Amino acid sequence: MKGLLGKKFFLMLCGLLFTVRVFAQSGVSEIQIKAAYLLKFPTYVEWPEGTFNAPDSPMVVGVIGSDAMAANLEVIGQDLVVNGHPVEIKRLLPGDTVGDLHMLFVGGMTSTVVSGFLQQAVRRPVLTVSETTPPRPEDSVINFSISDNKVRFDVAMDPAQRMGLKLSSRLLQVAQVVIRP
Amino acid sequence: MRSFRHIRSKLLVMVLLTMFSAITVAGAFILYNDLREYRNTRINDLTTQIGLLAASSATALQFEDTAVAQENLELLRLRPSVRAAAIYNARGNHFATYTREGEHVVFPELPGDEGIETVNDNLVIFSRIVADGEILGTAYISGDYLIWQRAIDFIQINSLIALTAMAVAALVCLPLQASITKPLFAITDIAREVVNSRDFGRRVKRVSDDEIGVLVDAFNEMLNEIGKTTVALQDTNRQLEQEAGEHRASREMVMKLNAELERKVLERTQALQVANKELESFCYSVSHDLRGPLRAISGFTRALQEDYGTGMPDGAHRYFDKVIAASSRMGQLIEDLLNLSRVSRGELVRQQVNFSTMAHQIADDLKQQHPGYVIEVSIWEGISAEADQKLLRIVLENLMGNSWKFTTKQSQPRVEVGVMRDGQREIYFVRDNGAGFDMKYADKLFGAFQRLHGAGEFPGTGIGLATVQRIINRHGGRIWFDSTPGKGAVFYFTLKSDLVVDPLT
To answer: Are residues B64 and A150, on separate chains, in Cβ contact within 8 Å?
Structure first.
């Protein structure tokens, strides 16, 4: 046990150090940027009719697999309104269901729990965002990646289409890779 | 001729200047409008441009995608009037830039405030890029704003238009002028001819029905009048010349006669002077020569009386007395005549004489000569005169002596000697309250040997006053008198010429 914890811990530390080194110049951490971007994505996405109960009903953003991300989102998302919908951050636990989420962020690398969530999400109109390498174009619409020391993202059209989500061309413009069906 | 057809050039200049002003004014308005339009167009264009730029760059800024931003800017290559553009991020750093081909642009370090500015030949706009209330960055665009060039181009074209228009106007004007100038020149030509030839018979032909036509009629009328007046004037002139000639002739004659007269007068005067001189000499020598025999008569008569008088009857003595008295009188007469002559000949020595003192002396002498004769003598003090002393003495002796003589019949004889001042001149006087004389015979008074009173009434030779007058005249003065019979007489005289020469004239 001790050895495993130590290895994981060591890896996380390395990852953190890595991210700290990468973004030291700009003074902003990778997580912060991703969080900021995350809350910008909904502006460029159109959910199918009826997804929102009312024009001002909350937009629920679910987070699993990254407490740091959740924490950042809570900070940025406080009092944030996107297209008239106030943003609500929901931390998910392994036992939860996707339920009434509008957006889902799965942090970290792939794990069975994460996969389960993603598969669930794909059956409903949920904007899925991941940060895996390689990207998972079958169930994750947007996938963060690091390129040239910058946070970039790929967009997969297929899952969005299946879910009935319409993506703005402007988003596609700034995406590093657009994976078409 | 000096300024050939001056009026024509005036008309031409008038037309050209009018055209020029009109075109310039019109041009100015058009230019103003055009430049305003241009400005608005450029501003609108660039504003639109930067708006599009801002909108399209929002996403790129949000996701820090400089490549996309740069791509957007590159599209500006399609709009050659855009010189440069840039996107600044939220922190104010350059995010993406675009520069027109061949240009070198230095972008502002930091984005400026939102707004439009003209910098040299460029229009520069800054615009904030905002999304969802968040400032993502600033857009910057710089486009051509060649307003001065445009203005200059326009002015050049306008000048060309003006010149062309003026040239055309001049061409059009030249023949049209004639409608004004031709009738005008008709008048001026005739006017010049009339002035040169003095022929008022010329008339101007009326060719137009406007104000010049009126002028032509008036001019002709005027010539008519002048013609008539000239004829009248010429007649009058001829008459006047004639009269002037006559006057000249008579004036010449008058002058000739004058000269004649002057000559004659001169001759006569000279003759008279000569005669006078001879007469005086004669008078003098005769008087002088008469003294001798007279002395003999009186002397021997006296001797006769003294030596042989004892045995003679009284009647004889009476006769002797009468002879002596008569010869004495004659002696006096001769003396007076001699005096008169002397007075005319001697030199006049004018000096300051104490008039009052002299009068006193003479009064004393007279009193001595007439002892016991009571007469009141009043002599003004402090009188002085500028005269010949000897001659003045004779004057006073005569006048005062007369006063003594003619007051003997009065109860209170009085004589007064004084002076009156009349302006610049002094008038001396001798006044008495004696017998006086009738002014009717006044002109005889100064004639020699003229006596207004018989020898029985008052003694005297009658020469005294003639002498006095001669003396006064020699001094350049005047003597006159006033008298009432029984009331006395007063003699006035001056010792200087009345003609006072005013030093200022």
So the answer is: yes
Are the C-beta atoms of A108 and A8 separated by less than 8 Å? no
In this complex, is the C-beta atom of B90 within 8 Å of any C-beta atom belonging to chain A? no
Please state, in angstroms and as integers, the Cα–Cα distance from residue B438 to each residue in B398, B435, B487, B488, following that order. Answer: 20, 10, 11, 10
pLDDT per residue over A59-111, tens digit each?
999 888 888 889 999 998 888 888 889 998 988 877 777 778 889 898 876 56
Give the C-alpha distances (Å, rounded to integers) separating B328 from B94, B130, B284, B322, B464.
Answer: 163, 165, 19, 10, 17
Enter the DSSP assignment of A86: E
pLDDT tens readout for residues A10-53: 555 555 555 444 444 456 788 889 999 999 999 899 999 888 88
Residue B16 to residues B6, B161, B166, Cα–Cα distance (Å) = 15, 13, 6
> Cα-flanking dihedrals φ and ψ of residue B446, to 5°?
-90, -5
CA distance to partner chain B, nearest, from residue A6 (Å):
36
Nearest-by-Cβ selection for B59 from A150, A153, A174? A174
Q: How far apart are CA B430 and CA A56, in angstroms?
A: 154
B253–chain A Cβ distance below 8 A for any pair: no
Closest alpha carbon within chain B to A144: B63
User: Is A40 close to B62, i.e. CB distance below 8 A?
Assistant: yes
Give how far the C-alpha of residue B474 lies from the chain's centroid of Cα atoms, to the nearest Å: 44
The token pair at B416 is 């007064």
- Cβ contact (<8 Å) for A173 and B59? yes
Going by C-alpha positions, the residue among B393, B405, B284, B402 that lies closest to residue B334 is B284
Contacts of B60 in chain A (CB under 8 A): 173-174
Separation CA B19–CA B37 (nearest Å): 26
Rounded distance, CA B452 to CA B438, Å?
9
Residue B310, token pair as written in the block? 């004892």
Instruction: Please give the radius of gyration of chain B, using alpha carbons only, rounded to the nearest integer.
Output: 65
Residue B334: closest CA among B396, B285, B277:
B285
Size of chain A in residues: 181
List the one residue out of B471, B448, B442 whose CA is nearest residue B460: B448
A178 token code pair:
């657009």
Q: How many residues does chain B have?
A: 505
| Selected residues 76-105 of chain A with any CB under 8 Å from a CB in chain B | 82
Cβ atoms < 10 Å from Cβ of B418? 17
ipTM: 0.73
